[in-house]
Amino acid sequence: MKIPVALRDTPYEVTLGAGVRHEVSSFIVEHLTRARVVAVITSPAIRRQPWFDFNFALEAHIIEVADGEAAKTLTSLGRVCEELARLGVSRHDVIVGVGGGAITDLAGFAAAVYLRGITVLHVPTSVVGQVDAAIGGKTAVDIAAGKNLVGAFHQPAGVWCDEETLSTLSDRERIAGMGEVAKCWLLEGRPSTLLARATMSEFVEVSVALKARIVAADEFEQTGQRALLNYGHTLGHAIELVSLARDPDELRHGEAVAIGLAFAARLARRMGRVREDVVVETDAVLDFFELPTRLTGTFDTSVLLEVMSRDKKAHHDLTFVLAGQHGCEVVSGINSVVVREVLEQFQEA
Ligand SMILES: NC(=O)c1ccc[n+]([C@@H]2O[C@H](COP(=O)([O-])OP(=O)(O)OC[C@H]3O[C@@H](n4cnc5c(N)ncnc54)[C@H](O)[C@@H]3O)[C@@H](O)[C@H]2O)c1
């Protein structure tokens, strides 16, 4: 199945299904006719997986970077660019990012800046990668001041979400990835009662379709539509940042988003935007995916409030995506006293 990302200048397709990773080579031959070299960016852990069996019709090289978030550094970016230059990768050649969201973010950024921009294709292999990171053209690395603070918009020319790659994910990575799926399910207003009948490929499909539609409507986050994808992310980012500093293993991004979704439902109810049933329904969706619905670990409320008001997407006041009568919308200028109150109850619950 193919889902179009209908951008005006750089439209592309997301291909979903079992074994679709094998279509990347023919895409390059058919569509990137001037390409001579394929540079695959991946990590040793990804390269070891049984499904890492790419066979490119062109000269192909593998560039290994660190696994996970450690790939997303300026040093790593520099090494990749040096390697691309050493391999003689030209403006007509192509980078293929194979891995989780960290790898596709780095591969996308390298493609955005190397020779002022070359083509990138993604084969995302984690749930987060498939439903979120690889689609939409946001690329970045982290710096000491924060995650994703240095990056660029650079759309891929194609994305292949191969469900076979998901089979080797650890339970924790798979479940955490469902945090983004839960977000999409809730944004689409789908009832929790339909979850039990859906398959993993349907979850990916629903999420990719939503992301593709929103990205096509607001590529550069200018009309506010793309900001809807930050549902659950205001608190999610804050607890991710705080927990990352003390133990990188404490919380996965998707787990943080799940907690953020549960909190956003409660904040919306406290502000009179929705009734209790929205809180119950949100928890039911998160429970189905075995995701957390409470703030676990010890978080200082004042620190979280401070981090949330600094969130680069928050424009220096408290901004949340909240459910309301007409679905979810971005709500700015929220009184921090109310947020603190709901947060304190949420932690105690
Ligand atoms: N660009 C965007 O729009 C966007 C959106 C969401 C998230 N992100 C970024 O994505 C990153 C998170 O992505 P992630 O959750 O995929 O984490 P990740 O890329 O750090 O991968 C997590 C772990 O899963 C492993 N893994 C990935 N695929 C695997 C597979 N098929 N089998 C076995 N192991 C596998 C990786 O090796 C890694 O150890 C963050 O850096 C986040 O900022 C970007």
Q: Flag low-confidence runs.
A: none
Give the CATH architecture of the largest domain.
3-Layer(aba) Sandwich
What does the radius of gyration come to?
Answer: 20 Å
Reading side by side through the largest sheet, how are the strands ordered?
1-2-9-6-5-3-4
Percent range for β-strand residues? 15-25%
> In sequence order, what are the helices and strands, one letter per element?
EEHEHEHEHEHEEEHHHHHHEEH
The 3D shape can be described as globular
Instruction: Give the mean pLDDT.
Output: 94
Helix content: 40-55%
Q: Note the total helix count.
A: 12
Instruction: Give me the count of strands.
Output: 11
CATH class category label of the largest domain: Alpha Beta
Which ligands are bound? nicotinamide-adenine-dinucleotide
Q: Please name the CATH topology of the largest domain.
A: Rossmann fold
Strand count, sense and barrel status of the largest sheet are: 7 strands, mixed
Structural category: alpha/beta
